[in-house]
Amino acid sequence: MKSSKLFAEGFTDAIGFFVGALAAALLARLIGFDFLDPGYGTRVLIGLAMVGAGGGIGVQVARRLLAKRDKDAK
Question: Which pLDDT band, with edges at 50, 70 and 90, does 52 fall under?
């Protein structure tokens, strides 16, 4: 694999994770699950789980978009 392709995959994963986690954090906070509240209560843990899930979903979406772009380029 070329290093530019590997860089593109890594960069895409990072951006996808960041955007997905940020969107999930904002959504979690909007519905009352702020993962930045002090302590380890149920609301904090649910908010943290939502941020992790949002990051994972963001990576998957970013990978699919990159694969679609690569497929269209061929």
Answer: very high
